[in-house]
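Sequence design from tokenized structure. All designs in this work follow the same two-part layout: the structure record, then the generated sequence. An example of the structure record is given first.
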């Protein structure tokens, strides 16, 4: 790894500290280097607060060193006036010697404009350093803006013989170690989705309990509004979107979104895009999961297996005929990771 890559890697590490907290903004980290030494670093904590570059600049003790310094940033500095003035202008104003960018921002408001402002000011700008890793860091943000839909993660737990439950009744499959991992996953993603059947069978609250983090937005697909309002998914612990065919409107933290049954998945994607949901874990029941698999509408899948558990009868696990790119072992459970386009 050369030095540029080393510093961009540090930008990525910093950015990841805010995972799950920056929506609708991307994850961004920034490092300022003078004479081979880091003199400032920062990352974007949450929407409405300072961007990474500003936090990094503010952390520099001796501002006189800035004109001889290089600023590293994992994503192209913004060029538009939002809640804050553009970072590209700030970089220009302070007169950095050089700017090193991980990934360019395909988001229409930026897309090369930030880099251009910097170059037009006579500052050297380099981009595409550890680009793959920087795009991976913001896979949710990029998927949302480029594909006009959230980044989709399918997730389920199955027995060694391929069932989701025993005799169609809720059954604990994964161990406590895996449960902790699942709760962290929930904290990292923007939203979590279940179908009617799962909500009725399991009465889940879909909140983050065994990990640190913010509760994801809950999405319930319930066409005929069969799930009683007394169920946990309707409690006030998180924003809940109820995708249904009966009504529209917001009641406290519950938002009813009316969609047609026809061409349902596309309608759902449009609704979630409009709600600015950047990533979603589909936890939902065999039918819901299989719909996404059959449509090829997913980005990652996480399958938990309790190899030693045989349930013999119940709901069959969804079928995903792919090879995992990674398998982790959590005591007697294995967790397999898949990517649709790996």
């Amino acid at each position: 790894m050369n030095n540029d890559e080393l510093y961009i890697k540090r930008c990525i590490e910093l950015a990841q500290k805010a995972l799950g907290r920056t929506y609708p903004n991307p994850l961004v980290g920034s490092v300022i280097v003078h004479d081979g030494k880091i003199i400032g670093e920062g990352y974007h904590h949450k929407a409405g607060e300072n961007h990474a570059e500003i936090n990094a600049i503010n952390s520099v003790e001796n501002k006189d060193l800035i004109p001889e310094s290089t600023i590293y940033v994992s994503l192209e500095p913004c060029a538009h006036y939002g809640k804050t003035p553009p970072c590209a202008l700030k970089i220009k104003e302070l007169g950095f010697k050089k700017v090193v960018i991980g990934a360019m921002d395909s988001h229409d408001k930026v897309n090369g404009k930030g880099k251009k402002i910097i170059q037009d000011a006579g500052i050297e700008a380099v981009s595409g350093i550890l680009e793959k890793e920087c795009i991976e860091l913001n896979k949710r943000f990029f998927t949302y803006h480029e594909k006009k839909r959230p980044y989709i993660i399918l997730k389920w737990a199955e027995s060694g013989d391929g069932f989701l439950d025993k005799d169609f009744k809720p059954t604990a499959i994964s161990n406590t170690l895996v449960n902790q991992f699942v709760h962290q996953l929930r904290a990292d993603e923007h939203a979590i989705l279940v179908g009617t059947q799962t909500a009725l069978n399991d009465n889940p609250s879909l909140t983050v309990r065994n990990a640190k983090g913010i509760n994801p937005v809950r999405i319930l697909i319930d066409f005929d509004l069969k799930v009683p309002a007394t169920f946990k998914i309707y409690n006030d612990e998180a924003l809940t979107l109820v995708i249904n065919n009966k009504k529209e409107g917001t009641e406290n933290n519950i938002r009813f979104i009316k969609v047609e049954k026809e061409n349902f998945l596309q309608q759902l994607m449009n609704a979630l895009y409009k709600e600015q949901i950047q990533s979603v874990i589909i936890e939902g029941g065999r039918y819901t999961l299989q719909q996404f698999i059959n449509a090829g509408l997913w980005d990652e899948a996480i399958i938990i297996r309790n190899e030693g558990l045989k349930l013999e009868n119940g709901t069959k696990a969804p079928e995903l005929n792919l090879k995992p790119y990674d398998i982790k072992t959590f005591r007697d459970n294995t967790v397999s990771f898949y990517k649709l386009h790996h």
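The chain has a mean pLDDT of 95. We note this feature because it recurs in several other targets discussed in the main text.
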